[in-house]
Write a structure and sequence with these properties.
Oligomer: single chain
Distance between the termini: 47 Å
Shape: globular
Bound molecules: iron/sulfur cluster
CATH class of the domain at 122-278: Alpha Beta
Strand order of the largest sheet: 1-14-13-17-15-16
Structural class: alpha/beta
CATH architecture of the domain at 122-278: 3-Layer(aba) Sandwich
Order of helices and strands: EEEEEEEEHHEHEHEHEHEEHEEEHHHHHH
CATH topology of the domain at 122-278: Rossmann fold
Number of helices: 13
Largest sheet: 6 strands, mixed
């Protein structure tokens, strides 16, 4: 069967073999867990606990600050040590709640559950998803309840579940589909109960045929479709997934609902199932730990708040050989210099690269080969955008639709001069946003 896809894009070396066959292992954390109050796109949470408070597993410790924000919960039981700014993955200090884990994983049996019994309304669904602190667990960390709060005049025609997992190395979604596929289908069924007229489609790249076949079996007898996608990066980008699955194009600066779509990640829709059916907030996430710098590549279920250092030591990091550590995938992830930062809701992978994998090179002048233009999935001219950005010509940058750049890295990947196109564009976008 031929997989659907989008225009342009690239075929990097996927290097998923090291972990694709490895079952998810539960890793229990050490004594101290750090919970940043900013784990999502939107306003940071307000801490609602103080030093000395006892918290149970699942207790809310950070309250959402406004609609575009998501609650934060303790993944362990124990005592609040301190509430203070600590270094986080963002490379800056954020306000954090630090909890001393008592190792009991005690649950407060008297706490009111967010679970919803029977048929739920759209309002109940939104409230439950927000209370569970569910965000885009593919890495985007956009609060999931915001996506579900569709305007009354917009019809939801498709609910698309992103099982593409197009970033090299990453296999956490692949394993979730194989090992926890019932939760994914269960979460999608809940969404389809609320958005009754929508068609549910799960899109899976054709380098995960075992997951595709397994999910096809799980949806038998339902209206849900499982669609094979051609393996190509960035297939999992929201706009490109929509195009591949529905042939619809999201206009510049607009959201998927403009073309009748809601898109959720595999793990996020599983989290919706766990919230609605079991009353469970987001307490952990599945993290692929890979790269030649680790002796034991793995897919781990890691409690949020656990330090990167502990995860890396669990996977047998070779500190001597590892020259680059990336949080997330190699295309869109962030290189980090401090491993004493916590795993948060959006941490899909931790990659440890040796010199050979990191492929560090020095950028040289643009040779105007046009290769970056050929691969840009947004139809932009990356070389021209970089030039405008470097010269601070932001009006020009806007005219060239620079804000549409999804920072996928296809241009930099293909550039023979190894120019730092994405970093330059990202900086320009941030400068334009802050000016606004
Ligand atoms: S310009 Fe942006 S969207 Fe286009 S390839 Fe480069 S990073 Fe991707
Ligand atoms: S791929 Fe690199 S060298 Fe070629 S046009 Fe684009 S920026 Fe210039």
């Amino acid at each position: 069967m031929k997989g659907l896809t989008f225009k342009r894009g690239i075929h990097p070396n996927y290097r998923k073999d090291a972990t694709a066959h490895l079952k998810i292992e539960l890793m229990l954390p050490d004594k101290e867990l750090v919970f940043p109050m900013s784990q999502h796109i939107g306003a940071p949470c307000t801490p609602i606990v103080k030093k000395g408070d006892y918290v149970y597993v699942g207790d809310r410790i950070g309250a959402a600050n406004g609609f575009v924000s998501a609650d934060i919960h303790s993944s362990v039981s124990g005592t609040v040590k301190v509430v203070e700014p600590r270094m986080t993955l963002r490379g800056v200090k954020d306000n954090c709640v630090v909890i001393e884990n008592d190792g009991l994983y005690a649950v407060d049996e008297n706490k009111e559950s967010i679970k919803v019994e029977g048929m739920l309304t759209k309002e109940q669904l939104i409230s439950c998803v927000q209370s569970a602190g569910i965000v885009g667990l593919g890495g985007a960390t956009f609060p999931a309840h915001v996506k579900l709060s569709t305007p009354e005049d917009k019809k939801v025609e498709y609910i698309l579940i992103n099982g593409a997992e197009c970033e090299p190395y990453l296999t956490s979604d692949h394993r979730v589909m194989l090992e926890r596929g019932e939760e994914v289908v269960g979460g999608l069924k809940i969404l389809l109960q609320v958005f009754k007229e929508a068609q549910g489609i799960i899109g899976i790249e054709d380098n995960k045929m075992d997951a595709y076949e397994h999910m096809c079996k799980l949806v038998e007898g339902t209206s849900i479709k499982v669609q094979l996608l051609h393996t190509k990066y960035p297939q999992g980008s929201e706009k490109h997934l929509i195009y591949a699955l529905t042939s619809r194009e999201v206009p510049s600066g607009k959201l998927p609902i403009e073309v009748g779509c809601i898109v959720h990640n595999i793990d996020s829709v599983g989290a919706i199932y766990r919230a609605v059916k079991r009353g469970e907030p987001v307490l952990s996430r599945i993290v692929t730990v890979s790269g030649k710098g680790v002796k034991k590549p793995c897919n781990l279920e890691v409690k949020t708040g656990t330090s990167f250092r502990q995860v890396l030591e669990y996977a047998g990091i070779d500190w001597e050989q590892t020259i680059k550590i990336i949080a997330g995938g190699p295309m869109m992830g962030t290189a980090i210099s401090n491993v004493d930062v916590p795993v948060v809701k959006g941490t899909s992978a931790i990659l440890c690269f040796t010199e050979e994998e990191a492929g560090l090179t020095t950028p040289s002048n643009c040779i105007r080969c046009g290769k970056c233009v050929d691969v840009c999935p947004m139809g932009l001219v990356p070389s021209a955008l970089q030039k405008s950005a470097m010269n601070g010509h932001y009006d020009e940058f806007l005219k060239q639709n620079g804000m549409d750049c999804i920072e996928c890295g296809c241009c930099a990947f293909t550039c023979p001069a190894k120019r730092e196109i994405v970093q330059t564009i990202r900086t320009a976008k941030a400068a334009i946003r802050s000016k606004k």
